[in-house]
Amino acid sequence: MNVKLQSNSKSWIAIAIFSATFFGLGWLQSRYTTGSWPFTIDGISILAKHGSVEGDITESSHDGHDHSGHSESNSLKLSESAKKNLGLTEDFLRPIELEPFQRSITVPALVVDRPGRTRLPVNASMTGIVTHVHAVAGEAIQPGDLILEMRLTHEDLVTAQKDYLQSLGDRDIELKEISRIETLANTGAISSKTLLERQYSRDKIESLLRSQREALRLHGLSESQINMIETKRRLLTEMRVIAPRPDSHSEDEIQLSRQPSPRSYKTQNSQAVLVMDAAQTRPIYVVGFHDPVTDPPNATEGTIDSRDHDSEASQNHLLVLQDLNVQKGQIVNAGDLLCTLADYSELLVEGQAFESEAGFIAKAKLNNWKVSAITDLSGESTQITNLELGWVNNEIDPANRILKFYVALPNVLTQDTLNPNGQRFIAWKYRTGQRMQLLVPVERWEDQIVMPVEAVVREAIDSFVFQQNGDHFERIAVHERYRDQKSVVIENDGTLYPGDVLARRGAHQMQMALKNKSGGAVDPHAGHSH
Q1: Rounded to whole angstroms, how far apart are CA atoms 422 and 287?
Q2: What count of other Cβ atoms lies within 10 Å of the Cβ of residue 141?
């Protein structure tokens, strides 16, 4: 009897334990799942996930996933196509590296000319008539290129040359006479006084020639041009106007006829003959100085090699014929503006700071900190770095209280073409009048975590970045130490470490994806029976 009662009690205890376990599992599933049958494999998996079931079930249900480094609420799994859509290439998935950061202020700016360098006016040095125009408006030329030719009508210059030629002739006559009577005076056929008088006359002519040479120099002729008049015994009646160099004075000498030109690339009306060198690889412009009626061409007097338009030196000094103010047959007076050349290879950015920012500008100049410029080209914002801060005005505009300062801007050649007529046209990336923004450093911090603005997303009072963990991206809350238009400085407080791989763009899109995931997006098939 006791054995039977004991056996029955054990059965009731087993039934009670089984029932408690069964209902407990059902209660747990109702808490964690939405299935109608309480004891399912999915329910066991969820229990295993929360630590209620241990063993092989947990391992098999989550095989291939590492949950030790992320939580579902702050983790986002991205496919390869999603990474491509976000632009997360290797350049935008890089480990953190501590780097210096310069805190900057943003100043509006405008691209302007370099005074005395960008625009080069070319004036007529003498009165004359334009006989030929070699270049056209908008054409790109090099220093030394022929722009136009003029026939001189400058009365004072013509008179000075004529007097000089006449004095040269008088000297020649005196020298011949001295040579003739010198032998007679030595033999006693004539008195030595006659020879002495001739020598005095020669010296007077030499003195007159020296003064006339100086007068020609005052008219603008060089020593070589005066020597050419003496050698050829011809008046210089034509003048060639050539492109000057922006930063040198090698072309200050007036280019007149029968004088070697630094560069003559036209053949019409310029007495220039185009030949090839022995290897037939490049043209050589041989300028012959001769009278087309009486003298044969002289190809040994002034041979100039043409310069390579594609060389680095020529690109640094490409000039644009901005304005051409004369035409063939026009009479010009001394001092008239013939044309204006423009050298856009280097410009200036004029910063317009407020009076209160003058101290920041002065500090940047004192520490020789580099300046950056932000420009909007073709709808895309680009940043130009490592610009040199030139100088700061010593005056503040009393009307708008603006302090102007200037930054050198090297230009970039974007187009270089030849038309069917062989005329060259170029285009530069930066143009005068273009608006920019200057980033002027005011403080420098060492060993900082610096990320692009696109890598940090703000949500109310929090800021987040996304750290790569395998095929998942973990959302990490960070503290922003500083933010500007381009960069965010993240506090180096141990939340992130050098070597952690962060997504450097697409943070906003990933944040939206996480919110949709946690909020349970509406099922598009809800309410429909298939």
Answers
A1: 20
A2: 23
C-alpha 52/C-alpha 21 separation (Å) is 12
Tokens of 335: 């001092």
pTM over 0.85, yes/no: no
Q: Determine contact, residues 428/414, Cβ cutoff 8 Å.
A: yes
What tokens appear for 284 in the block?
């050589």
The residues near 159 (Cβ < 8 Å, ≥ 6 apart) are none
Half-sphere exposure of 129 (CA within 13 A, CB side): 6
Closest alpha carbon to 94 in 498, 483, 464, 506: 498
Alpha helices in 249-353 (DSSP H): 312-316
Are β-strands 93-95 and 501-503 bridged in parallel, bridged antiparallel, or unpaired?
antiparallel
Instruction: Give CA torsion, residues 53, 57, 58, 59, to 10 deg.
Output: 150
Q: For the segment 480-504, what is each residue's pLDDT rounded down to a tens digit?
A: 999 887 889 999 999 999 999 999 9
Instruction: pLDDT band for 63, please (50, 70, 90 cuts).
Output: very low
What's the length of the chain?
Answer: 530
All structural domains of the chain, each given as residue ranges with its CATH number in brackets, are: 2-61 (no CATH), 72-99+445-519 (2.40.420.20), 105-116+343-443 (2.40.30.170), 121-151+244-341 (no CATH)
Give CA–CA dist 424/140, Å, rounded.
Answer: 5
Distance CA 40, CA 261 (A): 99
Decide: helix, strand or coil at residue 165: helix
Amino acid letter at 296?
P
Return the axis-axis angle of helices 155-187 and 192-218, rounded to nearest 10°: 160
Q: Is 514 exposed, middle or buried (0-12, 13-18, 19+ CB in 10 A)?
A: buried
382: three-class secondary structure by DSSP: strand
Q: What is the DSSP letter of 244?
A: P
* CA atoms of 408 and 522, how far apart (whole Å): 57
| Full strand arrangement of the beta sheet holding 140-141 | 119-123, 337-342, 319-324, 140-141
Dihedral sign, Cα of residue 192, residue 197, residue 198, residue 199 = positive
pLDDT of residue 292: 32
Rounded distance between C-alpha atoms, residue 141 and residue 235, angstroms: 30
